[in-house]
Amino acid sequence: MDCQPQSLPYLSYPFSYQDFLLNHLLPNTPCLFSRQLTSSWPCFSSFLLPHSPRSINAPHLLALQGSSNLVSVHRPSTPLEREEGEAATVCEERRLEEVLGLWEDGKKEGKGLYVKDWHLALQNEREGEKEFYETPGVFRDDWLNGWCRTKGLEDDFKFVYLGSPNTTTHLHRDVYSSNSFSTNLLGRKRWTLFPPSHSHLLRRFPDLPRSQLISDVREVDKSVFRGWEEARKKAVVVIQEEGETIFVPGGWYHQVENLPSSSSPTQPILSINHNWLNSTSLLRVFQALVDDIEACEESIEDVREMLVVQYERERVGGRSEAKGGEENVRAGEAGLEKWEAEWVREVQELVKMDSGWGWEEFWGCVEWGVENSLDPSVQDLQPPLSYIRDQVNLVLESYEGRRDAMVLRSTSMGSTVGETVKRKT
Ligand SMILES: O=C(O)CCC(=O)C(=O)O
């Protein structure tokens, strides 16, 4: 892509939450933070060796990862794999020790390896160790990780990325359409970002929201992706230097390339990436889940037809073939079609599997956020309470008008989904 790097709004020390809120979080526009934002993080010294040029402290990373030594590693697929229909990149579980060893020994096989979505912070917390980074104040209004923690140490949205030079994360939008911040501990990255207003032009058929997405913005076939010429004019290309932090607002598609360092061209690039959302993201995150639900519904349309037929047969023949029992009866009593309870359950199970969450989880996260926002100690690092209340109410209103919400409310599956939030706002 022949786009020249541009300069993003640059936030220098001292960082003001109000500046970030008004100029970036609310308008949903990206920015870069200078290295002072994270310079006190312990990982800048513990993850790196002190001599010049700086390099990763492999024994320390291995010790932190501990016994669960497997990490997700992305590598370029082989020509044979591509012939067999594999994508350009393959993701597999590998031992961290092996990856670090290949790099250390300068082995050809180590080229192109990229350790991604590494839950090292979670691993560290499980071991009872001190945090190796602290979320900067400007990003601390984090409902996603806050809610996650209420479920114990099962999961989080904090990741370490470690890749050889020239590795890439292809075009994507972040999980749940959440925001992210990413800090380079070692090395530099090139980011190419596209505003949500132009997301549709990144697809093969701009009118079909689920049609093929461009994979690599460096090699786009313009005859296939007709919207590309227009989309690329809106691309924001940024070089993120070592120590800097980029704010990637939710819904912005982006591609990331790890750049080789001129002083140490084989040096891996190490970064911390953290996804988060709060009241400023709610409408977008809600809409992303609605879109995911629609996609799931479409993909199992045949199940809906089958359920309708099955329940009709039951009604006519007085037989009970369909599962769902009590819940279906309650759905029926609430004036809904009996088969709908089972249908909504199927769709919710599928969307949880495909996208990571459904209505129950979404509202669990909102409930955590609403409750936490009332804590007097967080007031300076979040929007005003009236704004939070308005956003939550807007989302609640849209939710309550939905057919699946009615079904969930009428059944034991979701009697509390959304209800607790309503009481608290
Ligand atoms: O640094 C990278 O390669 C990818 C980071 C990123 O885009 C993400 O996690 O969403």
Key features of this structure:
single chain; 425 residues; alpha+beta; Jelly Rolls; 2 domains; four-stranded antiparallel sheet; 15 strands; globular; binds 2-oxoglutaric acid
Short summary of the structure?
The protein folds into two domains: 10-195 and 234-277, Sandwich (Jelly Rolls), CATH 2.60.120; 285-424. The protein is built from 16 helices and 15 strands.
Strand-helix topology:
Blueprint: E1 10-11, H1 17-25, E2 31-33, H2 43-46, E3 48-49, E4 55-56, H3 58-65, E5 70-76, H4 79-83, E6 89-95, H5 96-104, E7 114-118, H6 120-126, H7 143-149, E8 158-163, E9 168-172, E10 179-186, E11 188-194, H8 228-233, E12 236-240, E13 245-248, E14 253-259, E15 269-276, H9 282-299, H10 301-317, H11 325-333, H12 339-355, H13 359-373, H14 385-400, H15 403-410, H16 419-424
Parallel strand pairs: 1-2
Antiparallel strand pairs: 2-13, 3-4, 5-6, 5-7, 7-8, 8-15, 9-14, 10-13, 10-15, 11-12, 11-14
Helix pairs in contact: 7-13, 9-12, 10-12
